[in-house]
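Case study B.
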Amino acid sequence: MSGGRGGVVLEAVDLVKHFPVKHGLFQPARHVHALDGVSFALKRGETLAIVGESGCGKSTLAKCLMRLTEPTGGRVVLLGDDITHLGQGALRGLRRHMQIVFQDPYASLNPRWSIGSIVGDPIRLHEKVPAAERRRRVAELLETVGLDPGFADRHPHELSGGQRQRVAIARALAVNPSVIICDEPVSALDVSIQAQVINLLKRLQAKLGIAYLFISHNLALVEHISDRIAVMYLGQVVELADTRSMRRELLHPYSKALFSAAPVADPDASARRTRIILAGDVPSPVDPPGGCRFRTRCPWKQARCADESPALRAVGDRLVRCHFAGEPGFPAPLS
Amino acid sequence: MSAVLEVADLAVRFRTTRGTVNAVDGLSFAIGEGETVALVGESGSGKSTAALALLRLIADPPGRIAAGRILFEGRDILALREEELREVRGGRIAMIFQDPMMALNPVYTIERQIGEVLALHAGMGREARAKEVVELLRLVGVPAPAERAKQYPHNLSGGMRQRVMIAMALACKPKLLIADEPTTALDVTVQAQVLDLIQSLKDRFGMAVLLITHDLGVVAETAHRVIVMYAGRKVEEGTTAQIFKDPRHPYTQGLLEAAKWEEVEGAMLREIPGAVPSPFDMPKGCAFSPRCGAALPRCRESVPPLVEVAPGRPVACFVAQERAS
Ligand SMILES: Nc1ncnc2c1ncn2[C@@H]1O[C@H](COP(=O)(O)OP(=O)(O)OP(=O)(O)O)[C@@H](O)[C@H]1O
Ligand SMILES: Nc1ncnc2c1ncn2[C@@H]1O[C@H](COP(=O)(O)OP(=O)(O)OP(=O)(O)O)[C@@H](O)[C@H]1O
Ligand code: SF4
Ligand code: SF4
Ligand SMILES: [Mg+2]
Ligand SMILES: [Mg+2]
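Model:
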């Protein structure tokens, strides 16, 4: 493995994924625009969070990067090698460098396998170690994610949702990958175990330099764990910046609305907060609106937004996809 | 407030090759009309098992409802015949499952699946059903609902699938909604919309809700009362304000501490030290004692019973009980 440029371990270049939608036999084919030109570079030891509303393309992005679904366009570069067109055999070898924790812990574990075989599988595939050694490592991995090693003999259907998710995390950690794509890795866990898992991910990152692509709806968690945040809307990145500067201010109208809606674990605070409620329905990703994709719901939209689609451009230290971002006082507070 | 649901001394056990798991043990609670009760607690503490038991959906074997009584609108659920039970499920009591595949059939379109519920419990005709399905999908915030209705579960994102399940559960305006992690896959804006929808059904039809969630923000915003579980048992109960402001059980206290992310910028998050005991190797005495900073010698000897430390505030902890007396 050569490693990537400037410490970049994983790169998405203009990724596009369209799903055909079936209609009548003689109607023109239409497509769900799940991803439309997504680019970013993930550096060694970095955590990049992907946030955005349900259906905006986060899981599709994860699957394209893993080549579990074939991108319609664009490229995926892992450790300096273009893997976009690699055959399945060669891909399998590369999987040890990039692992994934799936969103749905009920669908991601093979129901016929024991927990021990599931967690030990990447070790079996990628490392020549005796079975006893593998069992020892599996026991250790289970303990690392807060499960009793006795779980190795059990099967997925005997586990609670959170226990399954921890098995998936243990499996991803088994072969010390360079990149782990985490699709909602902790939302099925109680907050104490979430904290345990997050702390573990951070410790491993500090020790081994693992990079995380971290998909989550939990914005407080995202702010805590990530170095940078990318906000997606309808298949596109609309804002990408350092977590610290995102905490200070948000320049894209959609980011502003998104972050204003987070619930707070305090009955008093939740009564006081003001949310930006977005008017209008989320547009269909089948043939999304022309111009700015957010214009059907944007409280700040203007005539130009319908005619011209904004490019993702640099504003100060960040990237924003809005015509007016960077103008003084934009977006102005709503009355 | 009259109780819609009353659960007394519920116990569920699973038989496994390694021994018996007491997944739920001596659980009692009640939910009043229009009330939202949140069930929170450690992953693996028996929340989903308890919820499934309420509808007798525990697979037997390996599971068994070993003891208890479940009264819904005065009817004894455990005594119902299969066909009576089917009528209650998805009709008077609806459930949003943590496992999407408990609710969604991968080979049917969304329209057909929600339509079946409407046909079964609301006796709607074909055209009315098709319209109602689209309306329901719209209500739970699924964009382009008419197109989505024609798709299959695997064509949808995680959050859309979850909203389809919510739509299906709300289709018949149930008297009791059991919602097991209903919003884990939803972004905060959709979550707010779904919670508003549930609230409006409560206001209009007096729907009661048993809410299982790890999201304490959602609990704070929606629940009237909170039940905290640990290792299969209820360890504390109180109004939402009481639990958040004055948690008495050391587990609850640790849980709330762990939730305070905003305050620990950069550094490591607060965890409750140690791990949940293995169900095959439960500690003697209080199940939380190996991890409890306040533990006394007697905590390792006998199991603390649930005792009211204040009116409506049962807590299963010796130390909390002593402090209160
Ligand atoms: N196999 C598929 N066939 C057709 N459409 C699909 C398929 N997979 C995903 N889509 C569509 O692509 C879009 C993006 O879905 P994706 O699962 O990536 O969303 P997401 O951002 O992960 O959402 P969530 O937060 O709900 O998990 C959605 O409109 C979804 O319906
Ligand atoms: N079919 C089964 N066979 C054996 N054990 C089981 C079975 N189903 C559940 N269990 C065990 O019962 C306990 C309670 O599980 P349950 O799913 O109710 O937890 P939960 O509180 O819902 O957790 P989570 O928050 O992770 O969803 C767990 O220890 C689990 O491993
Ligand atoms: S370009 Fe226009 S519609 Fe789009 S986010 Fe900016 S102001 Fe809103
Ligand atoms: S009974 Fe003892 S060990 Fe259990 S929670 Fe209370 S103080 Fe801790
Ligand atoms: Mg997803
Ligand atoms: Mg559960």
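Chain A touches chain B through 67 residues (CB under 8 Å). The remaining cases will be described in the next quarterly update.
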